[in-house]
Write a structure and sequence with these properties.
single chain, alpha+beta, four-stranded antiparallel β-sheet, 8% strand
Length: 305
């Protein structure tokens, strides 16, 4: 097969269907960018889980004087020194517990002022309204229920709170966004495949005389089909390159520069450039192979060879 002939036929096909080729490139680029973004979002969620689940604590809040009248669990009054000692001893005996840190009401008030000192409510809070607590770090954060079952409802205990629940809401939101991105990606992918099939069909119809002559002189089916397949693959490859550019630009402008989320949201442990680079070959491969395979199946129906 002469490479020069195939390349010339590709150029002819792209020029004849320039508008549809442009639509294919754009739709492939958007769908692959969403696909790559969804993969990166999934990895981001996984990275954040590994990073934060290792740092979250289980908080055992103790009854204060102000809770005696408003909280049924604290009807017996504020926690006593004996109760605090028993709770701490029981925590030390539990195999799931890694470390235990006691936080007094004064310390809780200080931390509250450091975090929310600028809010209007901060001036109305006094140290005696704050709760004493034990901050418990577990070997395995998933075993929170072991601590909750042992201390929830116990005398002197106001509540047992797992900080993982707060993070789960964030991760749930991010997973929902990921599912939405995958749905839009699937929709764009279907549109791209339809455009590829239509482009190949129009290209084959516009060159039906050339293909007829090639059949008469004994050209093989593969020889006749190759220019059409290469056209679709070339358009898909351009779309894949554009998708890679969008992923790189998104990582740079959203995290490193521009919006600089990495400096503004320092509580979030963002994925690095290596995670982005590892996804680019997959995006390029799909961008090249998907249109080629779609064109191959379309030619079976629209090009009789």
């Amino acid at each position: 097969m002469r490479a020069q002939f195939v390349l010339s036929e590709i150029g002819v096909g792209l020029r004849r269907n320039l508008t549809m080729t442009f639509a294919v490139v754009v739709s492939v680029a958007l769908s692959l960018a969403l696909f790559g973004g969804a993969l990166l979002m999934r990895e981001q969620v996984s990275t954040m889980k590994d990073y934060w689940y290792d740092k979250v604590n289980v908080s055992i809040f103790l009854c204060s004087k102000s809770d005696a009248e408003s909280v049924p669990k604290c009807a017996k009054g504020a926690v006593t020194a004996q109760q605090k000692k028993e709770i701490e001893n029981d925590l030390d005996k539990m195999k799931v517990v890694d470390t235990v840190t006691y936080e007094s009401a004064d310390q809780a008030y200080k931390h509250y002022q450091e975090q929310f000192g600028d809010s209007p409510m901060a001036g109305n809070i006094t140290p005696d309204q704050m709760q004493e607590s034990f901050r418990v770090k577990l070997h395995d954060p998933k075993k929170y229920k072991v601590v909750a079952t042992a201390f929830a409802g116990r005398d002197g205990v106001h509540s047992v709170q797992d900080q993982r629940g707060i993070l789960d809401n964030l991760f749930g939101l991010m997973n929902g966004m990921n599912v939405a991105a995958l749905f839009v990606m699937a929709l764009m992918l279907v549109i791209a495949l339809m455009l590829i099939v239509n482009t190949v069909r129009v290209s084959a119809f516009s060159r039906r005389r050339e293909t007829g002559i090639m059949r008469l002189v004994g050209a093989s089916g593969f020889y006749i089909q190759m220019p059409f397949i290469m056209e679709a693959a070339f358009a898909g490859l351009i779309g894949g390159v554009l998708a890679c550019v969008m992923l790189l630009a998104g990582r740079y402008f959203l995290i490193d520069g521009g919006l600089a989320l990495e400096s503004k949201l320092n509580l979030i442990h963002f994925i690095g450039w290596d995670a982005v680079f590892t996804k680019l070959p997959l995006v390029l491969a799909i961008g090249l192979l998907m249109p080629a395979v779609a064109a191959l199946f379309a030619l079976r129906k629209y090009l009789k060879v």
